Amino acid sequence: MKSLYDCFMEKDCDMIEINPLITTKDGKVLAADSKVTVDDNASYRQKDLKEQEDTTQQNAKEAHAKHYDLNYIHIGGNIGCLVNGAGLAMSTMDIIKLYGGEPANFLDVGGSADGDQMTEAIKILNSDTEVKAIFVNIFGGILRCDVLTQSILNAAKEVGLKKPIVLRLKGTNSDIAKTMLEGKQKELGIFYEEDFDTAAQNVCSMVKA
């Protein structure tokens, strides 16, 4: 048990499980199989384990997002979600469910994402064939709303936006962001809405149409 604990701590494990543990006829106790998961956030410390990682079972979009340090989990619904902060992400997913939509993913860009990361985040949602509309819900603090808006415009220029986007921005430079979109919203299929509840209803109505 001590060796198991030492391995758990030394290798930054989330879980170590011996299953099954068997007893032989001559009384020996053997670990017949084991399950080990390592904290992804510790990969910079566990480079030897990282090199052995089997990526064949990873969702392609999750693997792509990971490359850009984006916290993305594919769920499989019809409304793509892009938010900053886990709490806002969960409340966004909840309100989508409330109004009859199905969240397609969990995508938290955090507060320190740069323009390139934000552009990739939009491109990931834009390329998801299950997604019919995108809900961008950002509270601008460290992450400025104008940086996010420029990322959306960059994604539109690079790949073209295939899905309508309901955009709700509050906080740092949200007024600048709104100005950046003036005259382009209809052309790009971006619908700016400051009220959280109204924005959620709008994006859900898009996937029901």
From TrEMBL:
SUPFAM superfamilies xref list: Glutathione synthetase ATP-binding domain-like, Succinyl-CoA synthetase domains
GO biological process: succinyl-CoA metabolic process; tricarboxylic acid cycle
GO function terms (MF aspect): nucleotide binding; succinate-CoA ligase (ADP-forming) activity
InterPro entries: Succ-CoA_synthase_bsu_CS, SUCC_ACL_C, Succinyl-CoA_synth-like
Boundaries of every ATP-citrate synthase/succinyl-CoA ligase C-terminal domain copy: 82-182
Cellular component annotations (GO), alphabetically ordered: mitochondrion; succinate-CoA ligase complex
Keywords, sorted A to Z: Nucleotide-binding
Top-level taxonomic group: Eukaryota
Annotated PANTHER family: SUCCINATE--COA LIGASE [GDP-FORMING] SUBUNIT BETA, MITOCHONDRIAL (PTHR11815:SF10), SUCCINYL-COA SYNTHETASE BETA CHAIN (PTHR11815)
Record-given protein name: ATP-citrate synthase/succinyl-CoA ligase C-terminal domain-containing protein
Annotated source species: Strombidium rassoulzadegani
